[in-house]
Description:
Multidrug transporter, Pectin_lyase_fold/virulence, 11-stranded parallel sheet, 15-stranded parallel sheet, 436 residues, mainly beta, 30 strands, disordered N terminus, 8% helix
Amino acid sequence: MKKLFITGLVFxxxxxxxxxxxxxxxxxxxxxxxxxxxxxxxxxxGQITEDxxxxxxxxxxxxxxxxxTSGATLTIEPGTIIKAEGGTGANASVLIIAQDAAINAxxxxxxxxxxxxxxxxxxxxxxxxxxLDQNQRGxxxxxxxxxxxxxxxxxxxxxxxxxxxxxxxxxxxxxxxNAADNSGTLTYISIRHGGALIGEGNEINGLTLGGVxxxxxxxxxxxxxxxxxGVEFFGGTVNASNLFVWAQGDDAIDIDxxxxxxxxxxxxxxxxxxxxxxxIDGPEGEAAGSFVLQNVTLIGxxxxxxxxxxxxxxxxxxxxxVYGFEESADVELDNNGVAQNYIDGELSFENWEVILxxxxxxxxxIFVEKGGCIENCDNDSSADDVLQDLIIETTTGTTFTAQAExxxxxxxTGTVGATTSDFSWTYSNTxxxxxx
Length: 436
């Protein structure tokens, strides 16, 4: 599909002339001293059409929908802070890395790159402010990366428009045929207080990855207090590691459209309005893809479910530690199709440890199938019975421990789950006192 990219719009915003200038008049964003006061603007708005570097010695402001367009690379230095203006609908502040553009945002454990709200009082050189917490959500949009890797779409279309971006903006397209597509690097990134409403029931995720390929590096990502999902994968093949999501409003890790990569080392800490820790969907079209989700720790709260597997999902979820949820929380196979995938070995659960919470007397009580009898089961067996028996009998190495109290006990008891020390750098570790 031919892709149309809008160019020629001139916006002034940069911090230092060393970061580039619009000398050739082609609409590339460059620094300017418009009012002659000796200070250069640090506001990002509109389109970035040439390579640009954001330095860590100033705080940058994201104002509205900012797009890095095809052929351009946005580089962000370690320790850089980007604060986003508020707004909803078409006015929501969001950073988009379009198809054939790139982002080179390589933070470090001691100097992470931070995306947050303009309301955050965090200052240069700090890694946390003092006036916001995990319950301040929807204060801006989020970060969207779009690539050319395969996705499975309704009608077997090759590309689609990413959710949260108006259909009139063709920089919102994602998907293609290049599994090895490279959208750049995101490491040691903290995304806070996002998820602004675009339309009814349509919020922006903390980090959205649409059709992102294996050439892209995604590692050490934290999302805190987002209205919608923490990290969502729309198809694609990119591998991601060391993901931390705290207090999201909807799902922490969301897989859609036959995502076919590996997600390794994940911690989810549910908040007071969180829905599922994991929501896993399968293909929408004929194209298939099988995910790997491994080394995961899911920490519940008074709100929310453990996981929901839906829409013909195929893949493996292994080495999972679950604790801290409440009585109604479960792992659902949401319909007959995904339950049949489980029976057929296309969806598997390996090495789960569930530290039972109040009201749960057996590990089997946590795994349920909803929506009627699993295909091929007889009239004397309920879907729940068939599924629970299969999970307990065929998941080698799965254990269900007695109920434990508190984070320390859970980590000490668990022999599977995430490597928590990889998250000692996070804002969440400091704010929530997790002791990583």
